[in-house]
Amino acid sequence: MNFRRIAIPLAGAALVAYAWRTWGWAGVALVVGAILMWGLLHFTRMTQVLKRAAGRPIGYVGSAVMLNAKLKPGLTLLHVVGLTRALGEQLSPKDAQPEVFRWTDGSASRVTCEFADGRLTTWSLERPEAPADGATAEAPGAAPADR
Fold first, then answer.
1. Cα R_g (the chain), whole angstroms
2. Separation CA 147–CA 145 (nearest Å)
């Protein structure tokens, strides 16, 4: 069981009880107002992240290499969606633990992330293989370089 799911409500109730004993109804109003403001700030952050992600293709990231460099264990799925500004392509079955998501950039590099209970546990960067020896990676329709 997740410790935070129990500890945060208990801490909130303890703060309200302490405010009641110390300052009466004014203290309760102050603490409940602060808890409500904290909840509204988190809700606003979540809606802003999801609004930014709504306009991008699912599973797309600007640079998979930069995303790989910014990831660290313990990040929440919401934080990773905020970094990528896109929802990840879900590879695991819906509501199965651990959840696996993938983000791909324009050069076919991919970052696959595994989340357990909404927190990042492992990730891997997969880059496409380099072109065969002697072959150059020229853009289609580009004029050959002067030799």
1. 23
2. 6
Q: Does 104 lie in the same domain as 84?
A: yes
Question: Does 39 share its domain with 84?
Answer: no
Tell me how far apart the alpha carbons of residues 97 and 11 are, in angstroms, rounded to a whole number. 28
pLDDT digits 0-9 by tens, 28-60: 999 999 999 999 999 999 999 999 998 889 999
Could you give the CA distance from residue 98 to residue 123 in angstroms, rounded to a whole number?
12
Domain of residue 29 covers 3-53
126: β partners: 110
Its pTM surpasses 0.70: yes
Contact indicator for 61, 86 with CB cutoff of 8 Å: yes
Nearest to 87 by CA among 120, 54, 48, 43: 54
**Average pLDDT, stretch 63-74?**
93
